[in-house]
Amino acid sequence: MAETAPGSPSSDSQEPQMDENVINSPMNTDLEKQTDVPAVKGLNESRIELLARVQNLKKDLQEWRGKLDTQVKTYREELGELRSTLNIEVEQLRTEFQELRSTLKKQLDATSGLAGLDPGSLAPKAEQPASALSTLTSN
Question: What is the pTM of this model?
Answer without folding.
Answer: 0.43
